[in-house]
Design goal:
about 325 residues; binds flavin-adenine dinucleotide; five-stranded parallel β-sheet; alpha/beta
Length: about 325
C-alpha cells in the first residue's frame, strides 16, 4: 500500500544532520511508492531543501520564521501541525534524537495517534508496515504495527543506511507561512559542551573510556586513536562520576544510546547499564586487563591487557594502514 509520509529534517550548524537522510531512507521504504515530503524549520533553511531531495525526498516544505531559529517544542509543534494540516500525510518520520524524542510524542498525542519509537528496521508485510525496535536494553526486539491514526515513528541513528546521494535529482522546495504564536520557552543561549568534531550519537567509530583510564589525562591515548579513525570519544558513567570527562559523553541506560560500526571500550567493566547504551554496535572491541570483565561477553574482539600499552600500539598500526 502506497503512503504519503513527512520526514522532519534536523539542521545543526547550518547543515542537515545525517539522521535526516536515514529517516528519508526509512520513509521511502514505509511510503512503498507513495510521496515522501521533507519538512524543514528554521530562520533560513530553504537552501538545504535541494540536498534533502538529493537524498530521496520527493519535495520539501519549509517553515521559515525567526521563532524557529532554535528548537522549542512549542514553536516546532505549531509549525508541524500547520504542515500536517496542509499536507494530510499518513505518517511522519523523525530521527530518534533529543528533538525527535521530544516532539514526536507531543504531536502524536495531540493527534490521538500512536508512536513507535527507537525504530531500527521496518518492512512491508502484506498490508501492514512492520517496525522493529529493541526492548529490554537491547536484549530482545519487538515488532509493531500501527492499527489506527497517523504513523509516527522515530528512527534510531546509525541503523538504517541513507540512500545514495543523487546530485542530479531535483524537487520542489516550497515555503509555508505559519503565524507562530508567542513561545512559552525562549532559548537565551546554547552552550556547547565537551563534544568537538564528530557527534557521538551519529559517530561511525567510538572510542570509549571507563574508570580504567584513571584520570582526565588518561583519555589522551583514546583521543589519539579516535582522531586516526575519525571517531568520537565516549565514556562510561564510572569515568564521568570520577570527573575524568563530561557527562555529555556518557553512554548507557542513563546516557546516550549509540550504534556505531565500531565501538572500542577501554577500561570499561561492562555493567548492564553501560551495555544498554552500546551493545547493538556493529563491532565491539574491548580492552581490559581483567580477563573476567563482563564487557568481553558482548565483545567481538577482546584484548586482555593494559589500555595504556595496547592503545598506542593500535594507534600506530591504524596510522600505517590508513595513511
Ligand atoms: P568499573 O566498573 O570500575 O570498571 C573499570 C574497568 O577498568 C575494570 O573492568 C578494570 O579491570 C578495568 N581497568 C582498570 N585499569 C585498566 C587498565 N590500565 N587497562 C585496561 N583495563 C583496566 N553506567 C554507564 O556506563 N552508563 C550508564 O548510563 C549508567 N547508568 C546507570 C543507571 C543506574 C540507575 C545505575 C544504578 C548505574 C548506572 N551506571 C551506568 C553505572 C554502572 O552500574 C557502572 O557502575 C559503571 O558503568 C562502571 O563504569 P566503569 O566500567 O568505567 O568502571
Amino acid at each position: 500500500m502506497a503512503r504519503k509520509l513527512l520526514v522532519l529534517g534536523e539542521v545543526r550548524e547550518g547543515s542537515l544532520r545525517n539522521v535526516t537522510f536515514e529517516a528519508v531512507a526509512a520513509a521511502k521504504t514505509a511510503a512503498n511508492g507513495g510521496e515522501v515530503v521533507g519538512v524543514l524549520f528554521g530562520e533560513s533553511v530553504s537552501a538545504l531543501g535541494a540536498e534533502f531531495v538529493q537524498y530521496g525526498a520527493d519535495r520539501v516544505v519549509t517553515v521559515e520564521n525567526e521563532k524557529l531559529k532554535q528548537y522549542t517544542s512549542d514553536g516546532y509543534a505549531q509549525a508541524l501541525l500547520a504542515v500536517i494540516d496542509q499536507e494530510s500525510p499518513e505518517g511522519i518520520i523523525f530521527g530518534h534524537t533529543a528533538l525527535g524524542k521530544d516532539l514526536a510524542p507531543r504531536i502524536a498525542a495531540k493527534l490521538q495517534s500512536g508512536l513507535i519509537s527507537d525504530v531500527t528496521g521496518l518492512e512491508e508485510e502484506g498490508e501492514n508496515l512492520v517496525f522493529t525496535r529493541p526492548i529490554y536494553s537491547g536484549k530482545a526486539f519487538e515488532k509493531k504495527i500501527v492499527i489506527d491514526g497517523l504513523i509516527f515513528a522515530t528512527i534510531r541513528p546509525n541503523n538504517i543506511a541513507p540512500l545514495e546521494k543523487d546530485e542530479a535529482k531535483t524537487g520542489d522546495v516550497s515555503s509555508l507561512s505559519v503565524d507562530i504564536k508567542d513561545l512559552r520557552q525562549i532559548i537565551k543561549e546554547v552552550v556547547r559542551k565537551a563534544t568537538e568534531g564528530v557527534d557521538l550519537s551519529e559517530a561511525k567509530v567510538i572510542v570509549a573510556g571507563g574508570r580504567g583510564v584513571k584520570s582526565e589525562e588518561g583519555f589522551e591515548p583514546l583521543k589519539e586513536l579516535s582522531d586516526v579513525l575519525g571517531g568520537a570519544i565516549g565514556a562510561s558513567r564510572g569515568a564521568c562520576d570520577a570527573d575524568y570527562c563530561d557527562y555529555s559523553l556518557q553512554i548507557g541506560q542513563t546516557g546516550k544510546v549509540v550504534t556505531p560500526d565500531l565501538y572500542i571500550a577501554c577500561g570499561i567493566s561492562g555493567a548492564i547499564q553501560h551495555l544498554a547504551g552500546m551493545s547493538n554496535s556493529k563491532v565491539i572491541v574491548a580492552i581490559n586487563k581483567d580477563p573476567e570483565a563482563n564487557i568481553f561477553k558482548v565483545a567481538d574482539y577482546g584484548i586482555v591487557g593494559d589500555l595504556f600499552e595496547v592503545l598506542p600500539m593500535l594507534t600506530a598500526e591504524f596510522k600505517q594502514l590508513l595513511v
